[in-house]
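Q: Hi! Curious about what PaaI family thioesterase looks like structurally. Here's the sequence.
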Amino acid sequence: MQIEQLQQEIPRIFAPWIAQMGLEVLSAEPGRVRLRLPVKPEFVHVGGVMCGQAAMAAADTAMVLAMMATLGEFRPMTTVQLQTSFLRPVSGTHCLIEAQVLRSGKSLAFGQIDILGADGKLAAQATTTYALL
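A: Let's find out. The predicted structure is below.
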């Protein structure tokens, strides 16, 4: 799927609040996507950095888009596991989310997501398992 197609699918497939996050698809190829997430004031907690909940929502969304790029279409799937390690805080104007499908089988898919700060440094890393329905 092309960048434009994936971008158009965000408000169609995901909950309205995910579409309101402002994710922008920067690149897409089978098994990989790269997104830009603005660090909006509503994502920042009292510590002055982006909250983990926003990062995990962006990671989960990115992996669904990477699966779509792999499959060539949206197929119903559900998150079975999403494990995230937070390595450094995210601040600044945006962050980048890079999702990669590691393996996609008939009923399960596995992936990895890197979240990079605006400075390009790794801020969080997640691994995921999805059940294809």
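A: A fun detail: The beta strands are 24-29, 32-38, 77-86, 94-104, 108-117, 122-132.
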